[in-house]
Amino acid sequence: MSIHPAVYWIATCLTATPIAVSIAGEQSLYEDIGKASFSKPTQIDNPWFPLTPGTRYTWKGTTQDEEGVVEPHTVVLVVTDLTKVIMDGVPTRVCLDRDYKDEQLEEAEIVFFAQDDNGYVWHFGQYPEEYEDGQVVATPGWLHGINGYAGIIMPADPKLGDPEFSQGYAPDVPWTDRAMVHQVGQTVEVPFGTFNDVIVFAEYDREEPNARQYKYYAQGVGEVKIDYSGDDASRERMDLISVETLSPEEIATARAEALRLNSNAMANLPEVFGNTSAMAPPTPVHALGELPTSLAKSD
Fold this sequence. Notes:
Blueprint: E1 7-9, E2 20-22, E3 55-64, E4 70-87, E5 90-101, E6 104-115, E7 121-132, E8 135-138, E9 142-143, E10 149-154, E11 165-166, E12 168-169, E13 177-190, E14 193-205, E15 208-218, E16 222-230, E17 237-245, H1 248-268, H2 270-273
């Protein structure tokens, strides 16, 4: 994979904070993870993006399809108790994300996160399965160091005026998402609660530079709201509905689903996942039934 020849990296030696600078005044395409250290990478306690194993987040709202029809949209994220080594012996936390449109499962994916010793949460890659009529139609997966570069999903201490950053760079997928702090000190009311001192990130990708997605984060909770502006074709609007602690049986079910997706990743994308390590569960896996392919209403 080539990169603009004018781009080079500078990272501070005192803080190991990732900084990317271009000698031509251009933005770097991806972040420099080389100076980051990872002593407890799966202990993700960044106040803006905490990931506690056994936690389930549910967001509900609407999105727009290719014909412009507005559809109900639900996203369910489970922080599993699994880990997976992606880079240089660094284990990442495995999250299971399931995306429903009109109550039908449209996408399921495993995502890999790790927190460095300065509090930055890094996105190391993902394996998604996109479905139509219950059949897998696409698997645009990527991993750091194989067909992409890790990005920052949450800075340690985000502030207004900070430079934008890459959330991962895998242009062949394509995944080129970038973000920057857009607003701070906001108050947001969603079904899960009312939050003050909310920080808002504006996100875009290099394929749709005029589309913006806004993600609202509350300390101690994480993402509470999603909105959009510009040429965002999906027009996604979502609110946090619930944050739940799962039972041991529910954790085991999510764990089994994540392991199933990991096996699929190794079979479907052997050039990306084929030589990666197996996921490491803390206890033996007991499959307690499959997650539903349609989402039961929780009104």
